[in-house]
């Protein structure tokens, strides 16, 4: 084959029940390729009990790595000096070079228009660099491969491995009911109908949205739509999740639910990449942060804790202003009517 196979999506499901941290049964799903694993093997790979509020529902989902080479493949994404411009005139990204390793939890932060969404679109193979090279799973992503009408094994493989949650939920929802919405993806992957039904039911339960099963997606609240969008991705059990401003427009309770979900997915071994300018959540969902500047380049690529501690950096990229302060995980601002020479103090 012309591409390197590092794993295959499965065609069997094994289930076991284990008590979660709150005493509830937590469904564990293990999708595997038929003939390459026994039920005992599948169960041995099941995760330990989940923790936190979200653990009462979340299924720790994993696709087994069936080829030994993948275990040594730390880098799943690599951008080599890429740039991107819309219609050849409007610069969106400039000279971006970075690597993303398997299992990382990464935030891409920056102001509106800095290029966060464009970067995610490239990582998802929706658009292609104007210059430079993009590699995923050790294969170069090109327009000739991904936009061809011919069948392509690697393109199919990539689509099973990488899931994308759009900022605007309405862009992602188009089916008559929530059940049909979530079932659409696995049906396109030729998963047998009975297995699709089983997967969808499991994900509905995991996400706590069983009551929405027969509702039209466009009648849902913003938070409910976001949960359905995430469910449409998780039902395919991707190894990589890309989320564009997932906390935008969510009420505090739903935002907490989202944070706990992303934490649990990270603990289960998923690679989670989140584009956001919400400084209050990035330390909770990522260990590494990439700071995009208004010049559409990477200003800093480092630990999230160090990024949040660098007030000069955050000021320089307009993520905060001079009266905004960070105390632990809380970001807040003070409005002042200061004279030119006045200073203010506050207790930390």
Write structural notes for this entry:
With 348 residues, the chain is of the alpha/beta class. It has a single domain (12-333), classed as P-loop containing nucleotide triphosphate hydrolases (Rossmann fold), CATH 3.40.50.300. 31% of the residues lie in helices and 25% in strands. It has 13 helices and 14 strands. It has helices at 39-44, 68-71, 116-123, 143-146, 153-161, 169-172, 178-188, 193-207, 222-234, 252-267, 279-285, 304-309, 311-316, and strands spanning 12-19, 25-32, 75-86, 90-101, 105-109, 131-136, 139-140, 162-165, 240-244, 271-276, 288-292, 298-303, 324-327, 330-333. The protein has a six-stranded mixed sheet, with helices on both faces. α7 crosses α8 (193-207), α7 (178-188) runs parallel beside α9 (222-234) and α8 crosses α9. Residues 1-72 and 334-344 have low confidence and may be disordered.
């Amino acid at each position: 084959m012309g591409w390197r196979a590092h794993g295959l999506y499965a065609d069997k499901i094994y289930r076991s029940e284990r008590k979660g941290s709150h005493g509830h049964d937590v469904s564990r799903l293990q999708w595997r390729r038929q003939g390459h694993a026994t039920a005992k093997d599948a169960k041995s790979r099941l995760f330990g009990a989940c923790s936190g509020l979200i653990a009462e529902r979340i299924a720790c989902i994993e696709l087994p790595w069936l080829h030994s080479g993948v275990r040594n493949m730390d880098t799943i994404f690599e951008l080599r000096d890429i740039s991107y411009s819309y219609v050849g005139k409007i610069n969106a990204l400039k000279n971006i070079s970075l690597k993303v390793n398997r299992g990382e939890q990464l935030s891409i932060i920056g102001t509106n228009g800095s290029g966060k969404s464009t970067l995610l679109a490239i990582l998802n193979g929706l658009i292609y660099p104007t210059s430079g090279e993009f590699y995923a799973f050790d294969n170069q992503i090109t327009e000739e491969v991904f936009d061809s009408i011919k069948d392509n094994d690697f393109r199919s493989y990539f689509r099973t491995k990488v899931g994308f949650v759009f900022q605007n939920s309405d862009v992602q929802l188009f089916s008559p009911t929530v059940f049909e919405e979530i079932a659409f993806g696995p049906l396109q992957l030729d998963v047998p109908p009975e297995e699709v039904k089983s997967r969808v039911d499991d994900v509905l339960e995991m996400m706590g949205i069983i009551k929405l099963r027969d509702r039209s997606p466009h009648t849902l609240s913003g938070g409910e739509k976001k949960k359905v969008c995430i469910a449409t991705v998780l039902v395919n059990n991707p190894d990589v999740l890309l989320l564009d401003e997932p906390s935008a427009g969510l009420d505090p309770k739903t935002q907490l639910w989202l944070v706990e979900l992303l934490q649990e997915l990270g603990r289960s071994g998923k690679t989670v990449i989140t584009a956001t300018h919400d400084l209050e959540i990035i330390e909770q969902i990522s260990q590494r942060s990439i700071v995009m500047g208004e010049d559409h380049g990477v200003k800093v690529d480092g630990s999230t804790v160090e990024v949040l501690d660098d007030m000069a950096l955050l000021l320089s990229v307009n993520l905060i202003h001079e009266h905004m302060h960070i105390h632990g995980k809380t970001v807040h601002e003070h409005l002042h009517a200061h004279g030119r020479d006045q200073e203010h103090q506050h207790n930390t």
